[in-house]
Amino acid sequence: MRQPCSRRRFLCLAAAAPLAAAAGCGSDGATTCCVPPPTPTPAPAAGPAVVAITRARSYGEEAAAAMRQALDLLGGVGSLVRGKTVTVKVNFTGWPIEGLGGRTAGETYVTHGDTALALAQILAENGARRIRFVESEGVALPLEAVVVAAGWDLGALQAIAGVEFENTRNLGFGSTYARLAVPDGGRIFSYLDVNHSYADTDVFVSLCKMKEHRTAAGLTLSMKNVFGMTPNSLYGSEGAGEDKLGYRGPIHGKAEGWVRLLPGEKPGFQDQVVGVRVPRTIVDENLARPVHLALVDGIRTIRGGEGWWNPDVAPIDPGVVVAGLNALSTDAVAAAVMGFDPRAPHYTAPFETRENHLLIAEQAGLGTADLGRIDVRGLRIEDVRTPFRPSPSGWSPPAPLAGPGVPIG
Question: Longest Cα pair distance anywhere in the chain, in angstroms?
C-alpha cells in the first residue's frame, strides 16, 4: 500500500524514468505529502554482533547469490521485514554520477544497481510491505532520475511490489521534518531534523560500498553511509531553504570555511576540526537512526578515497559481500577485510588525521568493534583480506570468535 499523494508527487514519479523529463520536477521545494508527519520512536538497542562474509567476483546473478547467502547465514530477514516498511539508505555521493578509470560508477564508488535490485527482491520475497530507497542527493531531481543516472534498472525495481524512491535532500513528500533525538544527548548534535522517510519506517538498512574516506572519516562503510541522511536544505553549504542543494560542508565545520549553528547542534563545538566533528557526528546519527541491517558491497570498489574527486584513487576488487545485524560490528569486519585495525587508536591508520568513529561508537554503546567478540560466519577474514594500502604496523586480524557459522567457498 502506498501513501495517498498529490498531483505533484504523481507527476514527479511519472517523469522520473527518462532523466531529461525529470529535470525540473520538485525544483521549487514544494511540500505535498498527504499523510500526517511521522512520530519518531525511541532508538532500539544495537543488534547482535553477527556478521557474514560471502564471495562475489562480479555483479548480476553472482552478486545476488552472495547477498542471499549472506542473509541466510545471518538467519534470514523474514522476521525482520515481514509486513514492515523497510527504508534502504544508498550512497550516491557527488554529482554528476560518472564512471572512474574505465569502470562504471557502481563498480567504483556508489551503490551498484544490481545490489539494490537483489536486495529489493529478497525483501519482497520475505514479505516487506514497502521498500523505500532513499538518499539526500544534491540535485533537484526525484531519486528515480538519480538512479537512472547511476545505471540502475529502474524498470526492474519498479516491477517489484512496494518499491518506491525519495530524494531526501529536503522535505520531499513530507509536510514537516522529523526530529530524531540522540538518546544519550549527543557529542555534536542532541537531535537531527530529517526527511520523514527516516522516521516513517520500521526497518532501516544501510546499503553501501567498501571504501576509504579521505576527506573526513577514514573509512566509509555502513555507519558513515548514515551521514548522508541529513537534508541539504538544512545542513548544506548553501544555507537553509527547500531549494538549496549544497552538500554537508557545515557539518565538517570551520576546516571547510563554514561556521553556523545547525539544527540540533550543541553550542561550543563550532571550532572543532573536521577530524573531530565528522566522526562524532557519525555516532550521533547512528544513535538517532540505528541501522537494523548493514550491507557492504566489497565486490568492486576503489581505494585511496571516496569518489572521483579524490586524487590518486584506484580500483580494487576484494570480491566480497559483508552483511550484519549490527552496523558497528559489520564495519569492523569490513575494515579488517580492507587490512585495517577497526580498533586503531585515534589519529592512526586509516584515521591518520581524525578520530576513529568505530571506537567512539563502542563507547556510545552501539556494539562492538572487537573482532574477537564478533561471530563471523561464512568466509574467514584472513582468507579474503585485501589490503587497501600497505600496513606499516604489520597488523593482522586475530582469530575469529568460534560460532555456528560454517566456512564456505
Answer: 60
The DSSP annotation for 354-375 comes to: S--HHHHHHHTTS----GGGSE
| Whole-number Å distance between alpha carbons of 180 and 192 | 5
More confident residue, 42 or 318: 318
- Higher pLDDT among residues 181 and 21, named by residue: 181
CA dihedral 351, 368, 319, 81 (to 10 degrees): -130
**CA-CA distance, 355 to 219, in Å (whole number)?**
11
Which contiguous run of DSSP H or E holds residue 50? strand 50-55
pLDDT for 236 beyond 70: yes
Handedness of CA 313, 387, 393, 307 (dihedral sign): positive
User: What residues contact residue 112 under an 8 Å CB cut-off, 6+ apart?
Assistant: 59, 63, 106, 209, 297, 299
Under the banding of pLDDT at 50, 70 and 90, the label for residue 336 is: very high
Pairing of strands 375-378, 50-55: parallel
- Strand ranges in 226-350 using DSSP code E only, listed in sequence order: 293-298, 301-303, 314-316, 320-324
Beta-carbon neighbour count of residue 41 at 10 Å? 10
First-to-last C-alpha distance (Å) of the chain: 40
Which residue in 312, 301, 340, 49 sits closest to 218, CA to CA? 340
Average pLDDT score over residue span 69-92: 97
Q: Could you tell me which of 108, 43, 96 has the C-alpha nearest to residue 284?
A: 43
pLDDT (mean) for 160-164: 97
Q: Look at residue 139 and give its three-state secondary structure.
A: coil
**What is the dihedral sign for C-alpha 99, 104, 109, 114?**
positive
Closest CA to 374 of 325, 339, 319: 325
Band (pLDDT 50/70/90 cuts) for residue 372 is very high
- Cis before 350 (ω within 30): yes
Which helix (H) or strand (E) segment holds residue 219: the answer is strand 218-220
pLDDT of residue 21: 37
